[in-house]
């Protein structure tokens, strides 16, 4: 498994090695094939607003966008899962709103984005219920790992409830 990261923002310092390890852990937990490749971009609100407008017709910033690349019936040597784009500007605001660290918020957004790349969605109520339950499972899994000790606090009830919102 491979994770490619592009840091195109300067609002927050990001430990790219930590992010890569976290992404790999989520990919393993979700059963991504060994030849999987994931691309991640950290950007500002203006850049994600442009992408959101171009690809979703929504002229506003958002926290995370996912762009799946897997083609059915096509088995390349490297299996591109897709791209995840995270706005650190929005992550900073949401971290303040939920009273936790920016890295915690980025971890939550990474989980959400990777689940989209694995086929989860939250448009229909039943799909939303499944996705939120899986987000909670992943949060608990990550919190129980010694590799991600700085995220141990994200297993707290309010954040698990946040992952279960909209059910």
Write up this protein.
There is one protein chain. Helix 1 (16-29) packs parallel to helix 4 and helix 4 packs across helix 5 (125-143). The protein is globular. It has helices at 16-29, 45-56, 88-98, 102-117, 125-143, 157-163; strands at 2-7, 36-43, 64-68, 79-87. It is built from six helices and four strands; from the N terminus they run E-H-E-H-E-E-H-H-H-H. Helix 1 links the parallel strand 1 (2-7) and strand 2 (36-43). The protein is of the alpha/beta class. The protein starts with a strand and ends with a helix. The chain has a four-stranded mixed beta sheet, with helices on both faces. It has a single domain, classed as Metalloproteases ("zincins"), catalytic domain (Collagenase (Catalytic Domain), 3-Layer(aba) Sandwich).
Largest sheet: number of strands, sense, barrel closure: 4 strands, mixed
Query: Strand order of the main beta sheet, please?
Result: 1-2-4-3
Could you name the CATH class? Alpha Beta
Secondary structure: helix percent:
40-55%
Mean pLDDT across the residues is 84
Basic shape:
globular
CATH hierarchy: architecture: 3-Layer(aba) Sandwich
Low-pLDDT ranges: 155-160
CATH topology term: Collagenase (Catalytic Domain)
Q: End-to-end span in angstroms? A: 32 Å
Work out the radius of gyration. Answer: 15 Å
Structural class: alpha/beta
Please give the number of β-strands.
Answer: 4
The H-and-E topology, N to C, reads as: EHEHEEHHHH
Q: Count up the helices.
A: 6
CATH superfamily: Metalloproteases ("zincins"), catalytic domain
């Amino acid at each position: 498994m491979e994770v490619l990261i592009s840091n195109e923002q300067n609002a927050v310092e990001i430990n790219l090695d930590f992010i890569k390890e976290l992404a790999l852990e989520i990919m393993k937990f979700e059963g991504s094939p060994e030849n999987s490749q994931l691309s991640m971009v950290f950007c500002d609100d203006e850049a994600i607003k442009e992408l959101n407008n171009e690809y979703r017709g929504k002229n506003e910033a958002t926290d995370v966008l996912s762009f799946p690349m897997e083609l059915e019936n096509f088995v390349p040597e490297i299996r591109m899962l897709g791209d995840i784009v995270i706005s650190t500007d929005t992550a900073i605001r949401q971290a303040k709103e939920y009273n936790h660290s920016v890295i915690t918020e980025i971890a939550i957004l990474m989980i959400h984005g990777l689940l989209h790349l694995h086929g989860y969605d939250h448009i229909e109520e039943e799909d939303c219920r499944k996705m939120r339950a899986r987000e909670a499972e992943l949060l608990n899994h990550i919190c129980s790992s010694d590799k991600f000790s700085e995220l141990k606090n994200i297993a707290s009830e309010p954040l698990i409830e946040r992952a279960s919102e909209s059910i």
